Fold:
Amino acid sequence: MKFFIDTAEVPEIRELAATGLVDGVTTNPTLIAKSGRKILDVIAEICDIVPGPISAEVAATDFDTMLEEGRKLARLRPNVAVKVPLTPAGLKVCKVLSDDGVKVNVTLCFSANQAILAAKAGASFISPFVGRLDDIGQDGMELIADIVGIYREYPAFRTEVLAASIRHPMHVTEAARLGAHVVTMPPSVLRQMYSHPLTDKGLAAFMSDWAKTGQSIL
Ligand code: G3P
Structure:
């Protein structure tokens, strides 16, 4: 399972990349706005920190402008994955860019049918938004299970399921159980994944017992 982090905050990306556990980064217009930085600068900087796919989202909604934006973003660095919305125009852009060998992440996916369309359009990634479905009383993880199951039936589909809109560590566990290829999570969720009170308690006991031995390994 690959871990992407869902942020455009460069210092956080740098810090988490040092763990060796970060396989890619996803951004969206909201995250770019939060960063307060120019999209082309921030994407190029992130691409130089993390070698895996870095999703950069187009900002237009019509085919011609989205395609032009997508091509410009793709030219920035070879590890850019162009993110397009799951609309008819977005999927047309996905098909053209994918045929040109550009990785495309299709975002704002809320149904299995939408995920089937994205796979047929040659998407490298489909991003079902788990948390936003949970927010409206639907089961986001059921959608992940559906898509993973459907894609498995069609080995010709090369699209990876990228569980997005992740709100807490249990979402990561569930996505892993279901066989999602990738999970993109906010930095806070990745940090929370390390924590367990019994780890802290156990380590404190080991350290205190070790101190009593008066030994040193080095
Ligand atoms: O980047 C897409 C997705 O992960 C957004 O998450 O928390 O805004 O629903 P959220």
Summary: The pocket of SN-glycerol-3-phosphate is lined by residues 6, 26, 28, 129, 131-132, 164-165, 184 (CB under 6 Å). The beta strands are 2-6, 24-26, 54-57, 80-85, 103-109, 125-128, 160-163, 182-185. The CA atoms of residues 59 and 65 lie 9 Å apart.
